[in-house]
## 1
Amino acid sequence: YVLTQAPSVSVAPGQTARITCGGNNIGSKSVQWYQQKPGQAPVLVVDNDSGRPSGIPERFSGSNSGDTATLTISRVEAGDEADYYCQVWDFSDQYVFGAGTKVTVL
Amino acid sequence: VLVVQSGAEVKQPGDSLKISCQGSGYRFSNNWIGWVRQKPGKGLEWMGSIYPGDSETRYSPSFRGQVTISVDKSITIASLQWSSLKASDSAMYYCARQLDGDVGNAFDVWGQGTMVTVSS
């Protein structure tokens, strides 16, 4: 199972960033999103398509339908600059990660 | 809730190695622990996961036979080991606790990572 992410997304401060994760019928799976800043371990920012773990700002939201899952970051801040990875548990009994999207805040 | 990993390692090709991951602040037996590899400048790769309660283990097809995942729940430590390292095993290795329930749940608490360098 393959998850497809755009390599990079650029967004101005205060605007909205949308990061997509494509996969065959991904809407039937539970999607997680992780944020990874340089030199740091990943952090879970969205769980089970749209759940927000404790401590994650409301600016982070997720959706999942059809062949595309989306992580939306509203009112982008400089501190949101990071790599973002989507993840699913495939029916072949394995986790799959997308290749990651680098978000640059202009 | 904390997940703390062992320190960086520098090894030679052919060496064996075991790195560890200690969980605390929660009921260790009740949550799967996963291992994730990240090569320099590259993305995340799931290697496998283990359930401390009964040591059930799942491996990624890419890593099955290449590494061994084990756990000692009496001391709340999960381990990842190699019997014969290769230069291509050089990477950062993360362990992470998985949310309660099934093996396919999210990784909600991550260790700080263990850097493994294999070089002659």
## 2
Amino acid sequence: AQTVTQSQPEMSVQEAETVTLSCTYDTSESDYYLFWYKQPPSRQMILVIRQEAYKQQNATENRFSVNFQKAAKSFSLKISDSQLGDAAMYFCAYRMVDNYGQNFVFGPGTRLSVLP
Amino acid sequence: EAQVTQNPRYLITVTGKKLTVTCSQNMNHEYMSWYRQDPGLGLRQIYYSMNVEVTDKGDVPEGYKVSRKEKRNFPLILESPSPNQTSLYFCASRFGQGQGYTFGSGTRLTVV
């Protein structure tokens, strides 16, 4: 079974600085999708960024970018120019590509604090 | 506005009293799913549905039921809630295989 690990339960970053959240996963599949979700105190789950495993290029969404290392099964999230509104729980998620599977596998989350 | 609507947002109930958490999406998504979120465990899938009348168990289905009679609705039913079902529940939907889920705003359930 696939597993997703986020080894940093909590992290903090100074406002305007850059922070990287780590995520590793375990799979025997060659094609899959990876996601980062943000959960602010409002508890709404918000999709931050998405990566397709067959694409070499790292995904980028404004201040958010990923470092996807397929061989190492690593999918870290970099937040540049951190803002107070970035404070949230961040979940890494994996999804296999097939016709039937539905399951997103989520990591346990990393709580990010942004210090003014 | 495209969204997933789940109700109620908060619910306190007693052990054994049947309850239903409703979920509705207005995006014509085929895929819908229920998750529970517990501290340190992330989100775990309870049930999912690929289309009307097609549902299947996720990782933690015990104690839950679902139905998908219409494409837009996917209610979660707890026939006899127990305290270990106290959790934060999310309904989610998506369109295609590679798409991320759109989540509802969550239901905080407490079973006493």
